[in-house]
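Researcher: Here's my situation. A collaborator sent me these components and asked whether they could plausibly form a single complex. I don't have experimental data yet, so a predicted model of the whole assembly would be a useful starting point for our discussion.
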Amino acid sequence: MAEEDRRVRRTRRTLHEALIELVLERGYERLTVQDILDRADVGRSTFYAHFRDKEALLLASFDDIRDRLREDIDAAPDRPATLLFEHAYQHQRVYRALCGRQGGSLVIQHVHGLIGDALREQLAVDGVPAEVVAEFHTSGILGLLVWWIDHDFCHGPEWLAGVYRRLAPSTMAS
Amino acid sequence: MAEEDRRVRRTRRTLHEALIELVLERGYERLTVQDILDRADVGRSTFYAHFRDKEALLLASFDDIRDRLREDIDAAPDRPATLLFEHAYQHQRVYRALCGRQGGSLVIQHVHGLIGDALREQLAVDGVPAEVVAEFHTSGILGLLVWWIDHDFCHGPEWLAGVYRRLAPSTMAS
DNA sequence: GACGTTTCCGAACACAGTGTTCGACAACGT
DNA sequence: ACGTTGTCGAACACTGTGTTCGGAAACGTC
């Protein structure tokens, strides 16, 4: 009974798809709510009945995937980078739209928080606060991710995970 | 004879100062051109005689500092991270406004390019493309920088440079 | 299949912010 | 004291936002 009405599902799904399409075509910043409405063929008032603004739609579009990523990380918290790379590889289209250079930086920030939280409890280096170590690694991992996305996912996720392990030997986490 | 007119200097300086102030107070994204005009007490048409938009003002405000940073890096290209940290420490107010979390991400992107270019020619790790190594390190360094800024420059620049050296021992660059 | 409910549409609206124009005036450097 | 150049301020057209509301259509349920 939670999601009973088909029309609601249809509207939200259509809007999400339109957003992804348009971000890939023209980049998030350049998009207008009206652009999304036209592409999705959804009425203006309908949009605002579902989302507060463009940003809310963006974040909602990432909700499902983020939840799954979080679950995976919770299940195996000792190798968040590997999980992130595999996850992105499985959802290339969405990750390209939301985490690539043309996506809004908001989603990246969320992922940053996710990975940062996981790393903070895994990493330890003598004489350096765990917070700082985690920050360095998280930023590095996301740098690798964005590079990978912008290079069309050349190489598999194992390769990238190997690169990370090679570049950050100061700890056990991968 | 290049910059003869005092009025021009005054206008540009006032606008830059107003921008920095307001970014520190309310964040770049939330700012209106009109806000900047009010704070600087400069006419609307005058603003557009100098800058195409808010973004152009932001980048111009970073021009001087960026040039000096580039010169420093060119002079000692083997330790770009250390130079960046020292540079930020010397210009805390501007860096806080332009590279902190509340600054537009544009300036950060510029710095990213600067550091990335320098690192790409310094780093080498067997079996990993230099491009990827540089991307990882650059992102990590900028992560450290942002963390440092957001923690009010606690510790000196040497400390942060030491942290970086400790976390990224896969190369000689510091 | 008929029902009451929920959602959607679409047009209208007020509003905020952008970037441009122009004439009058003031400040400038020489 | 001069001609030049920058600034002001008000007006304007324009784009995009977020809201409102009544009528129509689709929905789930019984």
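Model: Some features of this prediction you could bring to your collaborator: Chain B has one domain: 6-167. The mean pLDDT of chain B is 93.
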